Amino acid sequence: MLLECFMFGVITFLITGAQSQVEIFAEEGSEAVLPCNSRAESFYPPAIIWSKVNKGTVWRKERSGLQYWGASWSQKRSQGSRIQCPHSQFEKGDYSLEIRDVREEDGGIYSCRLEFGTQILESLVYLRIIKVTVSPSVPIWGRDVSVTCKVSPWPYGASVQWILNNSPFVPKNEITPNLEDRKSVVTEKATAKLSGEWTCVVNFKGTEGRASATASVKGIVQPSVDNTKVYAAVGSAVTLPCVFSNDLTPSSSVWEKLKPGSSIKPAPGLLPPSFSSSLPYSKFPWDMSASLTEVSLEDGGRYRCSGNVEGQKLTRTMQLVVAKIDSSISSKKKGSMTLKCQLSDESEITDYEWFRVTYDLNGNKSAESIQKGKTLIISEMPEENNGEWSCLFYGKEGILGNVTHHVQLMSGLSGKKSSGSSYNTAAVIGLSLLLLVLLLILAQMYKNHQRRKRIFQYPALETIVHTNSNEREERERSRVKK
């Protein structure tokens, strides 16, 4: 490498009439254009000679129009040469050399020599090939991954900047170019944040070169980060996601509910009764998601799923946030009800919104926004306010979830409803008393009927009974006359 730099300096010093020394960066696999321009006026086309220092002729064209390719550039001519010098640009004084599908070994010093009769013009171009590689090409979550930017030849004194997904990337450790290997290396632990397009930007003597590579990290892709919050309403069903990369088959998968306390090394606790460690509809080996068929307040908290992949244990934690609506009837303001949206963790909540849900005759559902805020006060409770009231809660990225409350028709909530309810109650009580009296009368009539049946079976006894009855009536009359 030092020899090449020395030769470059010597050649630059010795060549007379040199027009320029240009730095060109090209990404490996792309097309590189090595500029060579001249404003010299001539009635005859010049002879053009492109050569690489210490490597001989690359391409040349005689004044007669004959073209020649260097030995290392003329291989596989049946597939077409990787180099060309477009004749259509010669009239404009442009004799640039185009190299397709540039390779690492193409880097080096090139010379463009133009011979206009006795006038000779020569310029130098320094072509540097940039290549970005990721090792391993598809890293496993948690393992070391290296992203390397290699420039051939390496530009001593150049600055290197890394960009990840169009944003500057600042590594944990300072980037120090390895001068011996002529490359810059970033080494990190593989996480989802490292997935995407890596771009190496090299600046040298006012010239910038770029090259990119894509990194894809294998592991648990959903949720992509720890402590992701999952929201569910009390009484509803919820899925706790744990999805691995679709080409991974985890073994020894385990679900745990973590006890409250330290987040560094939390202890596992008991899973809820309605917890199921597998989804009935999932048929993919990489989907380890779990579900709760009916969420209760006690189910809120942190959960952890884990599985072994290629001898490494991968884990992901998430938090189940439970939502409910508390309702209360105001004692001070007659006929009003207060609904309050409650969540077991409100750290990511930015706003609340209340909707009244209605249904038409065909069962179609519609929702009308009523107000924003955590608390809703329903006053005087007209009949149309009965039914479903839904609370939507929002985060920075939009809706996080909702919870619904059913308001039942209740007596005493308003004066109008109270009088109507009292009237209905009085009517029911009156009908009940009348029915009771009728039942008593029927029972007495039935008893008298049965008694007469028994008496009629014995005529002598009947005569005695009538005689006694007549005597009692006579005595009563006599007492009244006295």
From TrEMBL:
Top-rank taxon: Eukaryota
A biological process term (GO) from this entry: interleukin-15-mediated signaling pathway
Keywords from the UniProt entry: Membrane, Signal, Transmembrane, Transmembrane helix
SMART domains recorded: IG, IGc2
Signal sequence residues: 1-20
Pfam families for this protein: V-set
Segments traversing the membrane: 426-446
GO cellular component terms, semicolon-separated: external side of plasma membrane; membrane raft
PROSITE patterns linked: IG_LIKE
Domain Ig-like residue range list: 26-115, 142-218, 223-315, 318-391
Entries under InterPro entries matching the protein: Ig-like_dom, Ig-like_dom_sf, Ig-like_fold, Ig_sub, Ig_sub2, Ig_V-set
GO MF term list: MHC class II protein binding; protein tyrosine kinase binding
PANTHER family: MICROFIBRIL-ASSOCIATED GLYCOPROTEIN 3 (PTHR11422:SF12), T-CELL SURFACE GLYCOPROTEIN CD4 (PTHR11422)
Protein name (Swiss-Prot/TrEMBL): Ig-like domain-containing protein
Organism: Channa striata
Upper lineage: Eukaryota, Metazoa, Chordata, Craniata, Vertebrata
